[in-house]
Amino acid sequence: MKSQIETLYELEQRKVQEIIWSPIDVENLTVIDFGVGESTQKLLELGARVIAIDKDKEKLRKYVGSDMSLIRCDIIKIPFHAKIADLAVFYFTLHEIDPNLHRDVILSARRVSSKIMVVEPSPSGCPAYEIYADIWRRAMHSIKENSAEYNQRMEKSQRKC
Questions:
Q1: For the chain, which domains are there?
Q2: pTM of the predicted model as reported, rounded to 2 decimal places
Q3: Residue 101 carries which DSSP code?
């Protein structure tokens, strides 16, 4: 059963990747990638001039030596002047940020980029994503049960940046 789910997930992942990236032409564009990961590598492959932003220095460390700028900062406190990028990318990033901060995050990105691309999991119609969504929903409910502890951890992590 596990290998079938992994296979289904991998097939859907490739399909989703193709749908997401095929219409996007970022060659020679300056792109800010909020939250390094799969999108960072894909943007490099597509020929973008990437500015990678993450508050996790370990994630950024994986890209040291790559042909891109690496910035460690809080996503709301972007240290750039207005309109330095052609595109800002949030690839599976916003769901990791407190929903109460989404407006501020998007406004910060809009200040530094002329266009914004948001890609988030969408379980509708994809069996593997429906499984993922169920797991995510149960995880979020368990966090809410310990919301005081969760809020303390979030505040502490935001002070580090």
A1: 2-122 (3.40.50.150)
A2: 0.70
A3: G
